[in-house]
Fold these 4 entries.
Entry 1:
Amino acid sequence: MKCYLECIPCFVKQAVEAGNILSSTASQREEILQKSLKLIINMDRNMTPPEAGMKIHSIIKFITGKKDPYKEIKDYYNNLGPEFYKKYKGKVNKSKDRLLTAVRCAIAGNVVDFGVAGEFDAEKDIEKVMTQDFAYFDYDAFKKILSKSRSLLYLADNVPETFFDRILIEELEDKEITYVVKSAPIINDATVEDALIAGIDGIARVVESGSCAPGTVLSLCSAEFLRTMKESDMVISKGQGNYEALEDIKGKDVFFMLKAKCKVVAKHLNVKVGDIIFKYKGGK
């Protein structure tokens, strides 16, 4: 999915909000905005939003001198993760359809995202996702493809979404699962460290994509990851960034699980902002 003109105000707002969150001085905030504006004005509109986001946040890292500018925020949500896990694992245990409830949990965890401009109330938004209707609901296709698959590639998104991913992965215990994280910190996206904190390594093989873009941009990923993806029978793609990067992928059975958080993605999917998506893209 390429960058649209409507993405530009969002990129600018991201730069402003990131500066306000991460920079201690007015001069740093101004420098972040000025350099981001220059980048946005001159960027290739054919690049994906995750590629643009990576470039903007590279500016933020350089100016603030922080390799992981969102670490304190990630630490805060990682500390909340066990409580989220316990609460929503309990909902799965009490559910008549464990797999479906686990899917809801995995999508619910997607609400915490500092890469999309705007405010959110994590606990309130998570609870809402647990009961709201799906805009796309390809659950039957998911069960069918899952029943025929041995290996599954699971593309992670954010922290503390990792704890919600664990809930779903535990319902897929008979599959060989590879859990893919970013190779370096980018916004609040999950890294190997975050996956280990959530206990993912006990139930899946954790690997890096080879990229630090906030979405799985295949041209930026490692040969090892691409080989693993090719060999996997099916893919679960979590979050808006991964959808933006992979919505036109061919040759793989991919299930996109996300909340539509911006007008551009919502329009692309023909849904409303705030809708939840469980969408299948066939491999043929």
Entry 2:
Amino acid sequence: MIHLINKSGASVMLTERGAGVVSVVVPDRNGIMGDVVLGYRDEESYLADGPCAGKIPGRFANRIDGGRFVLDGKEHLLVRNNPGYQLHGGPDGFSNRLWKTAGISDTEAVLTLDSPDGDQGYPGNMHVEAVYTWRDDNSLTLSLKATTDAPTIVNLTNHTYWNLDGEDSGSVLGHTLKLNASRWLVTTDALIPTGELASVDGTPMDFRTAKPIGRDIKADFPALKYGKGYDNCWVLDGAPGLKLAAELSSAVSGRRLEVWTDQPAAQVYTGNWLDGSPVSKSGRSYHDYDGVAIECQGFPDAPNHPEFPSCVLRPGETYSRTIIFRLNA
């Protein structure tokens, strides 16, 4: 485990397994420290866990329809981990690998991974670097970089589950969420994008004004029935570059989380299938809706939708993305 601590004593714990976030301990409105990240009691539980808790999935986060894509006229068949698609880079994706610690200090950790040509079906040898920086303002910056020696695709994110009242406090459906997004990606019942970018106007997908996560989660709306809650991707508003994507808050603890990114989209997953997950740090199993993941990323299934922002990485280029989790109370 890797331990980062700032001047106030707030801390972050990381694991080399999936370059994952194990804990984030920050004060509530009364100055009482608490761990606001879902995680497991045993480090071994992070291997091949269904929730992908805290980790960096890849090479391609989210879904690729049919487990296939065409690049420069050549079809590539990926290793599927679901009948109709590949999810989070396949059964042995980046989230299940042991990354290497290339550098560490009290407030920063550099983790690297080398993915060989043909890995899970992806072309090209890829080198990946994840830099976590924990600052005195209780912001955790994740800088993601990747290079390749052959044309390939890449989509990296972080899959941390947040509960601002504490990882052992139960449901997050009372948390308030705001998304700076006026469009979302319509999907099939398998959560594969159809290609349509729909307006959130007049739908349960509208978080432009902050509202409780649970307010509309049981609405009679196809997307919410497909995933038993929110498991959808929103197109972030604003020009390219670093911007505020999401704001999460809890009236109980007074904690607030801002999520900043230069990624074009954010997948919000409300922990709809957390029942049966490995034993938690507090000694019990998590239940559905005990945490929410805000996964800043490229568009799901982008390789099969030329109209989506490109996820292609070529030799001589560097994939570079930033996600910032800023906490306060």
Entry 3:
Amino acid sequence: MTDFLQHRIFGIVSDIAMREGVKAFVIGGYVRDCFLQRSSKDIDIVVQGSGVAIAEKVAAYLKVPVSVFKTFGTAMLRCDEMKVEFVGARRESYSADSRKPVVEDGTLEDDQRRRDFTINALAFSLQKEDYGTLVDPFNGVSDLQHGLIRTPLNPDITYSDDPLRMIRAIRFSTQLGFTIVPESLEAIRRNRERLHRPVVSLERISDELMKIMAAPAPSKGFYLLENTGLLELIIPQLTKLKGVEIIEGRGHKDNFEHTMAVLDNVAAKSDNIWLRWAALLHDIAKPATKQYDPVAGWSFHGHEFLGAKMIPAIFQHLRLPLHEKMRYVQKLVRLHLRPIVLSLEEVTDSAVRRLLFDAGDDIDDLMLLCEADITSKNEQTVRRHLRNFEIVREKLVEVEAKDAIRNFQPPVTGEMIMKRYNIPPSREVGIIKDAIKDAILDGVIHNNYEEACKLMEEKAAELGLS
């Protein structure tokens, strides 16, 4: 196993641990990823003794700073490109209403026993006499080979002790393409209520959700979250998308399954995590806007506008950023039907200008989302929609090259209008600005100062300004 321990940090830790008379081991994700042949920049060292003391001596040898977290009894330093964390081997016990454990010194096996999953309980020895020997008391290598997520202890104990592990199980299953063993899946269902705050912070939950969203096929994680009852506790708005209502023999599609298909379609084309969030939430308001008409059938009129209004509350609840990332998701949710409607009608320059103006630099992401939104099982329908989208894309390029509309600023500003007519900020200023903007987008005038100034004079005269 010494092939996995080529980085110089391992030899340094081994020498210092021997001099100090303690035993040290590499444990957790780094070992797991070695077997999976995945690159890893994080190394966890467990010491049968003081992990902090060994970390401080390693840092002194490397002449690098060390961060000590006394509350948790851990320390962290960086060696070359690696982040290395040290902890003393310990055993933990939990109370029913807290994730904070009672910690005592323990052995390596105690430390492995407290780990979340067998595949994360693997360890390599750093002792000179058996350097690189694998320590695997819970058959983690076998679970790696068979693609299984299993807890070292009874899963009820593991999940009740630290409820975040339930989401971590789903995250690892999604990231690695592994299967959660049936008894562990049932334990997640039984212990789902333990996820309620203050037991687990929303920040920690959101961190796991972000890792699920970054997986090659994120839908697997959300199906597991829904199947275990966790999704209802985290994003209840998504669970309302499930199911098909039938009236007079006519039913709509299952919007949860559709959303999962759109999410995976986007993930197959883009690593942009916020575009994936837009895919996840693009139809979030459909349950609130669902209507049935005996003639027209099912409709969800206005779900894009209501959905955009729902985004801030969802982001705030999940402790996701409320700045430009949230506004980006809002914009894509609000606009996601526009290219679809455009593709079904005659593609006019005016409509394309308005779409470019509203989408700005996010137009390419919007088009990708709209193409991903085509989930029909009828291949002819899919091909027809994609052909129409190609026409829209061509028109977008043509209009942008001709009119430079993307993120354009009208040639006449509000400040210029106020100075010209010696007026303060007012309704009249807004009327003139909107008239100029609309005239440019509708192709009535060109996007230049002369024509915009002439229209300003005409609108000002109509408003009685001189």
Entry 4:
Amino acid sequence: MNYREEKDSLGIKKIPADVYYGIQVARAIENFPISGLRIDKVFIETYAKIKKAAALVNNQSGNLDSIKTEAIIKAAEEVIEGKFDEQIKIDVYQAGAGTSFNMNLNEIIANRALEILGHSKGSYAIVHPNDDVNMSQSTNDTFPSAMRIAVLEYHKNLLRELYALEQVLRHKSKQFRSVIKSGRTHLQDAMPITLGQEFGAYADSIANQIHCLQKASHSLHYLSIGGTAIGTGINTPPLFSRKMVKILSSLTNSTFKKAPNLIEKTQSMTDFVQYSAVLKVFCLELIKIANDLRLMSSGPRTGLAEIELPAVQPGSSIMPGKVNPVICEALTMICFQILGNDLTISMAAQAGQLELNVMMPVIIHNLLFSIRILANGIHMLSNKCIKGITANELKCSWYFENSIALVTLITPTIGYLKAAELAKEAVATGKTFYALIEEKGLLSQKELKQLKDIKKITGS
């Protein structure tokens, strides 16, 4: 294998001649052979956009000549296009703050810029990873800024899936609005409800979580770029931060602003914790919905069997004909993973000290992973489960008519204790509430008819 020699503050090291990364990344590869996990592709693209924007602003400020600027921009654009993904070698578990990852981009862009200019890789006297590509920047402001931009990129897709889920649930609510069934509390008979009301409640819970997620995303629009090492903006030209924010907004089709306090945004990870916390709460709600669907579809002979979920694959390797609620099961596992990711994010966020939180790499890895698998899971739930749910109206009606809780309807007339005795008699004899009412002559036919009014009973 052919090698080139590169030098840093620790000494000289041989680097494979054909690679685009340099000595600092080579050291990190040796130091952190941990998981084989790599930073998310969207984060790579976002970071390269920051490098492109910085080259433009540095050129406008007169600190970077046009020849270098054009080469750096061209190289950054190729990184954005994914041409150098295989050269991103840094493990997720790396040196604190993401310095190794920042240098991975700096070295790739510098070496590709050198090629564009007709020079060999490693000729850093012409284009330098730190002096040119990283000019007016620090890992400490580029990394958290890239985190914010990347999260918001994934946020857009997550919102699309959430709105779609809400709409499909509302459609089911309308479809099932006349399907009466027994409600259940403590897994025991409770007052009647329509299947449509249940699905309508699910839709509203999704709408509430969308609102919370939107609110949590607002603070992510404020970037710390231009704060450099600790947020004071050392080694940046005038108005660097404001110019960077403007260009990044254009490059990402989003609206970003300079953070009011760059020091605060450099040292605090609270905004990411808040966003992750909303994902956690949302997952708790999704787990509840998935469990409800599994319960209502249990059977087909020995469970509730109120609804039927779409059959998407055989359920057993030994029991022929068995079909399981696999979509709900998969979604629940996704949610469990996100709950674990949230704990990691929380612990990493509180582990910052003074002017910097060095745990940023593990925060962004887990947060982007959470958003991605949640969006995919919701898409799966909407299209492979909710859309195809059908109601077993006969079974639901039977549960409604045989519910012991129906005695509540006559409690205002005969009192709680007599109603309780009536419930015991219904259980002992197997007779329905309505049959006992009629048999004992407790109500007139007109009054009995009113007790069977579904809209009045359910408030629908």
